[in-house]
Amino acid sequence: MRTIVDGSRKTLRYAVGKADSCFNRVHGWQGNPLYHSGAVAVGAFVVLLVTGVYLLLFYRVGAPYASVAAISHQAWGGRWIRTVHRYASDLAVVAIVVHAVRMFFQGRSWGPRALAWLSGLVLLFVLLVSGWTGYVMVWDVQARLFAMEGARLLDVLPIFSEPIVRAFSGETPMPGAFFFLNLFLHIALPIGLALLLWIHVARVARPRLLPPRPLLFASLGLLLLLSVVWPAPMIPEADALRVPVEVTVDLFYGFFLPITTRVQPGWTWLLGGGLAVVACLVPVVARPRSPYRPAPSVVDERLCTGCEQCYLDCPYEAISMVARQDDRPTLVARVDPGLCVSCGICAGSCAPMGVGPPGRTGRDQLAGVHAFVERHAPRDVVIVACDRGSGGVGSMASFLHAPVLPVGCAGSLHTSVVEHLIRSGAQGVLVVSCPPRDCWNREGAIWLEQRLFHDREAELQARVDRRRVRLLFAAEHERSIVAEALLRFRDDVAAIGSTAPEDDVRIEAECDLEGSVGRVPSELRT
Amino acid sequence: MNAVRVTGMLLALGMAGALGAGSRIPVALGDPDLGQIRLSWRLAGEVVEVCRERTAEELERLPAHMRTATACEGRGTPWLLVVELDGTETVRRIVEPRGARGDRPVAVIEELAVEAGAHQVELRFGPTDPGAVSDAITYDDLVELESGEVALITLDREARRLVRARSDP
Q1: CB B154 within 8 A of CB B43
Q2: Is the domain of A391 the same as that of A477?
Q3: In the predicted model, what is the mean pLDDT of residues B20-29?
């Protein structure tokens, strides 16, 4: 099972990574819709709500098909509003599926993120059911097909006193109550979606619910353009006394019909139930085996100054500030292991290097950079790269003769590492990170950029020449971008002139003295 | 406008087009030369009760207001559906009354794909329990239908006989 999961993750990562590179090239990473898939889904949901309110004004449960046909004949309003409603619902499904695939192969589906994964699955299911009710409301041949399939599935359950499918046999007219029930569900389920969305983002700080404005407006514009150019068709009205030979179906909501109409409903339940169980088991099977499972962050209370920066930066609200047990007057950070995903961003945000996952704190990073400097004695540009995106450079020992220092997530990089490299003789440090909206830990690239160049707490010290530091965003398959940036950066630092290495750089000791003087116990200042 | 921007716009338009195309996929569901004979009705059925006298001890255990001398347990009787199409038996199945206690009406829904044209349909639907008092209901008629047409045979409740519905209600 785990082999299958790992294999599918690799395959999906490769395929989506290639698509990312393609979109990045033509739209830039800021406008790559694949990076914003979750937010695009929410944007589509908002469009659905707005257009749905308009359609509700004209829909009549007593004459469903006729009222929808009347809406479609409103040349200046209803036709394209109905079409936008339909295309937005399709877009929502596509965006959610892309979002789920991305979360799956990025390993963001287990541990504390399991709640988001499971609530996302429920969101998708409720959206599909809501869309199903919406299509039934039209009562055309597709609607009847949807209704019949739903009835066939429900009739398998031994809870109804009569087969529901008989309601569609043509024996009696379709009751208005049926369309009222559909309408009710079509309104009530989206309210449930809003509640589920709240649960879905409950464990993340600062959730971005809508895509950036350029992407939002571009998506809206495309939906409008498509609606005007290619309006949703009015297919023939449902007729119980005609056998549907060929039906125009919305693939995004009726993808299962070619199969389910040909098998017994019991098989459909089995297949659907099996898929649901597999999807729900993802948080279990996608979890790394215990020896490789990253441990949550820990706080060294002796070093914590109570500055609250880790608490502010944590993308998962896993850190709280609590009263200290000793006599120092400040608060102290406390990590909730049940919420911590071990992203390590707190390690980058802690100036005195007192918090982070075991082995990845600022002090651990400095120990690593000591060894790196001894091994490479860098006199050229050094690349510090996230080992996930970054054109794949993070997994290399060197790239175009520049030694590479890998970090788990660029957002966990402590700026002292950059300072240490430059003071040790590196002529420049090229930090390569995933594009901000594709950070596997949500906000790592954003905080890193602010720490390096905008004096966010745990900032790169003023004594470091910023011309020797460059930050580059590159996706996994964008190695050529890294190569171009490296060559350009080499030229730029060569133009500045060389810098001599310092002897015995010990930033952690300086940090104790500068950042925490008077508060750090004396035994730690050695 | 440079080539990258044009490519970006074309890519966006292509995605929009794919969304529109995916929204209207023709799905073939059946043979266009076939018609369908659909049987659909609901019948109140018949509950056969088995009654016995309660013993004195049983009555003693019951609350005072529930001490009826006779205890009855009823269950709907199963019905047998037999359909012959052009002289060939096509359907023979027992239709159980619905509901957890099996006391709800019996409901029939059966769809038979047939060639367009005329077909002799003989149908018998009757209780299987020898003690049942209800008569079987039958249908024996020539059913003509075109390709794609559904011939719906249903129950005229007032006349308690099976008839062919002529138009979509």
Answers
A1: no
A2: yes
A3: 91
Whether residue B27 and residue A172 make contact (CB cut-off 8 A), yes or no, is no
**Residue A337: inside a domain:** no
CB count, 10 Å around CB of A316? 20
Question: What pLDDT score was predicted for residue A325?
Answer: 87
CB contact, 8 Å: A264 with chain B?
A: no
User: Do A263 and A370 belong to one domain?
Assistant: no
Distance CA A283, CA B48 (A): 53
B70: closest CA of chain A, how far (Å): 28
**A278 is a domain residue:** yes
pLDDT at position A520, please? 43
Residue A322 lies in a domain: no
Give percent of chain A above pLDDT 70.
Answer: 96
The total number of structural domains that make up chain A: 2
Output the DSSP codes for B102-146: S-SPEEEEEEEEEESEEEEEEEEEEE--TT--PPPEEEEEEEEE-
Interchain CB distance below 8 Å, B148 and A251: no
For residue range A424-441, list pLDDT tens digits in order.
Answer: 999 999 999 999 989 999
Which 21-50 residues of chain A touch chain B by CB within 8 A? 22-23, 25-27, 31, 33
Put simply, the answer to whether B26 touches A239 (Cβ < 8 Å) is no
**Cβ-based contacts of B17 with chain A (< 8 Å):** 226, 230
Residues A22 and A133 in one domain: yes
Write the CA distances from A477 to A20, A339, A407, A490, integer angstroms: 8, 31, 18, 22
Rounded CA-CA distance B29/A314 in Å is 53
Which residue in A18, A25, A26 has the most chain B C-beta atoms within 10 A of its own C-beta, making it the best mutation to test that interface?
A26
Give the bridge partners for B124, in sequence order: B82, B138
Residue A223 is part of which domain span? 2-236+249-285
Between residues A64 and B104, the one the model is more confident about:
A64
pLDDT in tens, A141-162: 999 999 999 999 999 988 888 8
A218 at B interface, C-beta within 8 A: yes
B50 CA: distance to closest CA in chain A (Å): 23
pTM: 0.89
Q: What is the CATH number of the domain that holds A82?
A: 1.20.810.10
State whether A220 and A73 are in the same domain.
yes
How close A37 comes to chain B (CA, Å)?
14
Based on the domain organization, do A404 and A275 belong to the same domain? Answer: no
Band of the pLDDT at A512, cuts 50, 70, 90? Answer: low
Mean pLDDT of chain A: 91
Is residue A166 a part of any domain in this protein?
Answer: yes
